[in-house]
């Protein structure tokens, strides 16, 4: 599998954030947090998919660390999205809550594992 697939996931996150902005869903603080997390996840995943490493001051971050941070942001955005769906009277609490409970732990686990260096997920398939 090619590492550029991670960039495709990042573009998907940026499209979600763009849709949230175009729909005018940035009126509540939880919505702003959800938007910011989707943007952060998208940017981090696109950078991880396209670059081998990123310099942050005097520290060099390898692609899997940047991807891990992106997946953690994506998981937190899904949690915020589910929480927003459950708390909103117009939303569907069952679908949104169930979606968040199923997807967010997977994204958070993947993110933490990538941050640790790929203990459970074989990151050599992307290299």
UniProtKB/TrEMBL annotation:
Superkingdom: Archaea
Cross-referenced InterPro entries: DUF7994
Keyword Membrane on entry: yes
Transmembrane stretches, start-end: 5-26, 32-51, 63-82, 94-115
Keywords: Membrane, Transmembrane, Transmembrane helix
A matching Pfam family: DUF7994
Protein name (Swiss-Prot/TrEMBL): DUF2231 domain-containing protein
Originating organism: Haloferax sulfurifontis ATCC BAA-897
